[in-house]
Design a protein that fits this description.
The chain is mainly alpha-helical. The protein contains 8 helices and no strands. It has one domain.
């Protein structure tokens, strides 16, 4: 008889595979379009439309969201959360978050140098010196806040709390990506590519964690099942 937990794991892995495959395909297509210059019209249109929304208070707000997705802030929060997990002996959670963010750092640098897309002219301030494609803010924020929401949601039972965690993660990640377009330091296609790269990486990490957890559960329950027989 198939156990419900095995069925849920199977559906999770199937869904993760579909999300990763779809995101990877779209990322590849978008990267090709970007290299051929076919995203210029789309990027220019969106940048112009977003820039028309500019007001002093909105600029201040967007700087705040961009700050929440910056490398120093995400790194500091990541280290703090890992320390909390270690304090409460949640070693698996600490390892999962650490592996996720180490991978983000390595992949972000590798992808930026692989495509070496120059930055657009910033609307406010000066553009960073790093390459533009994909957006590291979009990539990193999706992985950090997404994994954090997944870990916290797995510890709560109330659906309202789960909904709040996922909604907060989605809105925060979305606003961080939007802030990079608003400030003019990224093209819209950069941000989309960052989210796609994040979707591929986060589904890969969570799927591997799910598989390893399932194997550990079988090894732990194996002797008990033999004794019960």
């Amino acid at each position: 008889m198939v156990k419900p937990s095995n069925t849920k794991s199977g559906f999770f892995l199937l869904g993760a595979l579909l999300i990763a495959a779809t995101s990877l395909f779209i990322f590849g297509w978008l990267a090709e379009e970007m290299l051929e210059g076919d995203t210029q019209r789309f990027d220019a249109l969106i940048r112009s439309a977003v820039h028309q929304l500019a007001t002093p208070w909105l600029t201040l707000l967007m700087r705040g969201f961009s700050f929440l997705g910056s490398v120093p802030v995400v790194t500091a929060m990541c280290l703090a959360v890992i320390c909390v997990f270690l304090y409460f002996r949640r070693l698996r959670n600490a390892a999962l978050l650490a592996i996720t963010m180490f991978g983000v750092a390595a992949l972000d640098v590798a992808l930026k140098y692989a495509f070496h897309r120059p930055r657009p002219a910033a609307f406010f301030g000066v553009s960073p010196s790093s390459y533009s494609f994909p957006s590291g803010h979009a990539f990193g924020s999706l992985c950090f806040y997404g994994v954090l929401a997944a870990l916290l949601a797995s510890r709560v039972r109330r659906r309202a709390a789960k909904f709040f965690l996922w909604t907060a993660a989605v809105l925060l990640t979305g606003m961080i990506g939007f802030s990079r377009i608003y400030l003019g330091v990224h093209y819209p296609s950069d941000v989309i590519a960052g989210y796609l790269a994040g979707a591929v990486w986060i589904t890969a990490v969570l799927s591997l964690d799910k598989i390893l957890a399932g194997r550990h559960r079988k090894e732990r329950n194996g002797p008990q099942e033999l004794i019960s027989k």
